Amino acid sequence: MSTIRLLTAASGKAGEQTLPLDELASELEGVQSGWLDIMQPGDAEKGFLLETMGFHPLAVEDCFADPVDRAEHYEDHRFVVLRARDADSELDTEYLLAFLTDSLLVTVRHTALPAMDRFRERYRSHRRMRRLQRGPEFLLYELLDAVADDWLHVMDGYSQRLDDLEDRVFDQAMKYPELLEELHEMKQDLREMSKSITPLQGTVARLLRPDEEFISEPNYLYFRDLADVIHGLVNRIENYSTGVSSTRDAYLSQVSMRLGESNARLTEVLTTLTIIATIMLPLTLIAGIFGMNTDQLPLAQGNGFWLILALMGAFAGSMLYYFWRRGWLGRQA
Length: 333
Hints:
CATH topology of the domain at 1-115: Beta Polymerase, domain 2
Oligomer: single chain
CATH architecture of the domain at 1-115: 2-Layer Sandwich
Helix content: 55-70%
Distance between the termini: 87 Å
CATH class of the domain at 1-115: Alpha Beta
Strand content: 5-15%
Radius of gyration: 39 Å
């Protein structure tokens, strides 16, 4: 079910009304400056936008489809499409569509948006009359600035979060098994924010183009200041994304170094065991031959036992010398 709210300047005060659709046309008569918010529009609201308000059919169709971020200047009204943060999720975005006439700012959306709450609080503040006197064009600036401020609020914690992740990477005293996953999640978060903020930057840049004649001279400075704010947001996202990538590369490099050191130690152990096993093979063969139960073997009488031990020692010494010469045992000078 749709919800329609109308905020106007009434008797010097900002009055807010929740209206049924059949009373809306009469309430709009004589409004010089106001904001009409339509949430979850249906076919009846679509007909109202087309017939009563006289908005362009292509713009109205975008309110019921998946549009692209853009700004259009029609004959008697202007149209802006942007994405704002969804109230149900920290980073998911939903489309927010705004129509601008000489006397009214009309917003169309399909869900609750935190930026709209911020905009409503601004509209109802003690400075509301000054804003209303500047007309709906200034209200559009306030709306876009509320969307930018909402993203700025979300990004405030990411700098500290990135610093914490960097400290964990270089903390040798403890292990953080989920560190790589946290870095990947932060990278995804920044990518999601970029999907909304980067198109918003392009939309505001188009609003400021002189050939579009979208913004009047009295409000031009405000929109230029908004462009600077959004440019700062884009730069922050890029810097944070670069920082996350650098931190992830440093973490993977440390993991590779530790794995290489572990492999080197394992190789050294295996080399030692292999040398011992290789030396024992001929000694085992000698001991097996001379250990046979017969008197016909050479060295079986007299001092044969000591001679056999000497033979085994000679084999072992010659093999150790060979391994050493080949560099397999210790380091060759």
